[in-house]
Write a structure and sequence with these properties.
single chain; 0% helix
């Protein structure tokens, strides 16, 4: 179980890393086909998923992905 303030990291076989806060991912109903988080290039695939607590940059209040933290 995760908190909406946590971050999701998706890492591809070729080394692409995508990180976003869970609250930025839309919630879908049961009947939908889901949400695309990362679309790997041809020949690449998702290697790992990780969920972590959001880390706030102490200098300017933004998260490590450069987006501002919201209350």
């Amino acid at each position: 179980v995760v908190d909406r303030s946590h971050e999701l990291m998706v890492i591809s076989e070729q080394g692409t890393v995508f990180r976003t806060r869970l609250k930025e991912i839309s919630v879908q109903g049961r009947i939908t086909q889901g949400v695309h988080i990362m679309r790997p290039d041809a020949g690449d695939s998702v290697a790992a998923l990780a969920c972590s607590e959001g880390q706030q940059d102490q200098d300017n209040g933004s998260s490590r992905n450069g987006r501002s933290q919201e209350s």
